[in-house]
Amino acid sequence: MGLFESDWWRVAAATVAVAVAAAAGLWRAVRLVHEWSYERNLDDDLRRRLPPGDLGFPFIGNMWAFLRAFKSGVPDSFIDSFVQRYGRIGIYKSFMFGSPTILVTIPETCKPVLMDDENFVTGWPKAAVELVGKKSFIGISPEEHKWLRKLTSAPINGYDALSTYLKFIEETVVSTLEKWAEMGQIEFLTEIRKLTFRIIMHIFLSMEGDSVMESLERVYTDLNYGMRAMAIKLPGFAYQRALKARKKLVEVLQAALDIRRASRARGTSKKAKDMMDGLIDVEDENGRKLDDEEIIDTLIMYLNAGHESSGHITMWATIFLQENREYFEKAKAEQEEIRRNMLPTQKALTLKDVRKMEYLSKIIDETLRIVNISFVSFRQATTNVYINGYLIPKGWKVQTWYRNVHMDPEVYPDPKSFNPSRWDGLVPRAGTFLPFGAGSRLCPGNDLARIEISVFLHYFLLGYKLERANPECPVRYLPHPRPTDNCLARITKLLTTSS
């Protein structure tokens, strides 16, 4: 190589190096400006008290890292990256869903956030509130939440209401398992979501009819998929489809509500009451009733607890039991004992029977822990708050990472193993078991969801088995953990069943 050529390569290499350094410097400057734009109102002392972390790039923040982790099949790598950089301190600075956000990830940091209604209010992204409803529990003030929760508790979780729902749940589970056993290979998750949707729509609206149910179930699936998507209002994106789904659901529920109110005005309403009737009837001590928007947003919110959560947990509990014979046999023995102790004249389960399912309850708790349907919740600080010595600034969002608590080996040894026996004699410390949240905003539909899951597992254990086509199928984690083949399987009825 001649002298000229040698010089040319050195100049080219130096130019590239300068360009790379300039680009790196520019990116760093952009990140610093982004961070400064949200921290500029904090004095030096307050800025020093912020937890470690970074706000990433404008608009995007840490969202790409979050989505990449969950879509890669290793969802825990997102929080693990903070732990590796800053240690297991349980509180980190980030930028999520378009807002500066503090991530709290261990019981010691989650508990004070969840239990402090004065300094932390609900802080769901605006996009999620737009989908679920501004008058739902996630979109209203603490005072309104307290009022609405008190007013709606009896029509949803009261003893009389749950006893009424139990009869339909049991009848539907029995007939559906019989049908599945004759269908051959099915997408178990798809079918069980149809089952739970049919149950919840009957409880809400006394609605039946497969064609209507399937249409609405698909609509709700679109809405749910948009809940944790980036709020991009362009055709083809999950959030845009979710907005259309929300509009369709509101139209269906408003039409049902109009018909219900008109029949009441004519005095021709049916005697049997469903959840919509209950929400129409309730009133507070001052005679105030729920308006249409409050009723509709409440019903849409409860769809999640009674459909998505119960459907996915039922599928995973069934899979775990089928894969772990020891636990299967122990759970089955308990259900056989409950059947033996029923009176000869008793034809159906009662709430008392369901509450005797103590080992099955451990199966459900362990499934809730390991699957993490609700992996994070959202709050917002109303004032400057200090947790573990770190500042959460007023107005910043706070994410409580339930998933990280449940999968932390310092909280649950060998956390990835399905082990219902870990619950033997265990009373979880406050903040260590959060499948339905905690504090005043504990998920109000958890009792109904547990009944649905328990009744299904009762009949499955006594008379059926699951044979998966692809037991090693990869898992997709957004919006909820599920096998990529939707659990392709056969449901087989056993030759002998217990009664």
Automatic annotation (TrEMBL):
<dbReference type="Pfam" id="PF00067">
    <property type="entry name" value="p450"/>
</dbReference>
<keyword id="KW-0503">Monooxygenase</keyword>
<dbReference type="InterPro" id="IPR036396">
    <property type="entry name" value="Cyt_P450_sf"/>
</dbReference>
<comment type="pathway">
    <text>Plant hormone biosynthesis; gibberellin biosynthesis.</text>
</comment>
<protein>
    <recommendedName>
        <fullName>Ent-kaurenoic acid oxidase</fullName>
    </recommendedName>
</protein>
<dbReference type="GO" id="GO:0010268">
    <property type="term" value="P:brassinosteroid homeostasis"/>
</dbReference>
<dbReference type="InterPro" id="IPR002403">
    <property type="entry name" value="Cyt_P450_E_grp-IV"/>
</dbReference>
<keyword id="KW-1133">Transmembrane helix</keyword>
<dbReference type="GO" id="GO:0016020">
    <property type="term" value="C:membrane"/>
</dbReference>
<keyword id="KW-0349">Heme</keyword>
<keyword id="KW-0812">Transmembrane</keyword>
<dbReference type="GO" id="GO:0009686">
    <property type="term" value="P:gibberellin biosynthetic process"/>
</dbReference>
<comment type="pathway">
    <text>Hormone biosynthesis.</text>
</comment>
<dbReference type="InterPro" id="IPR001128">
    <property type="entry name" value="Cyt_P450"/>
</dbReference>
<dbReference type="GO" id="GO:0020037">
    <property type="term" value="F:heme binding"/>
</dbReference>
<keyword id="KW-0560">Oxidoreductase</keyword>
<dbReference type="GO" id="GO:0005783">
    <property type="term" value="C:endoplasmic reticulum"/>
</dbReference>
<dbReference type="InterPro" id="IPR017972">
    <property type="entry name" value="Cyt_P450_CS"/>
</dbReference>
<dbReference type="GO" id="GO:0005506">
    <property type="term" value="F:iron ion binding"/>
</dbReference>
<keyword id="KW-0472">Membrane</keyword>
<comment type="similarity">
    <text>Belongs to the cytochrome P450 family.</text>
</comment>
<feature type="binding site" description="axial binding residue">
    <location>
        <position position="443"/>
    </location>
    <ligand>
        <name>heme</name>
    </ligand>
</feature>
<dbReference type="GO" id="GO:0016125">
    <property type="term" value="P:sterol metabolic process"/>
</dbReference>
<dbReference type="GO" id="GO:0016132">
    <property type="term" value="P:brassinosteroid biosynthetic process"/>
</dbReference>
<keyword id="KW-0479">Metal-binding</keyword>
<dbReference type="GO" id="GO:0051777">
    <property type="term" value="F:ent-kaurenoic acid monooxygenase activity"/>
</dbReference>
<keyword id="KW-0408">Iron</keyword>
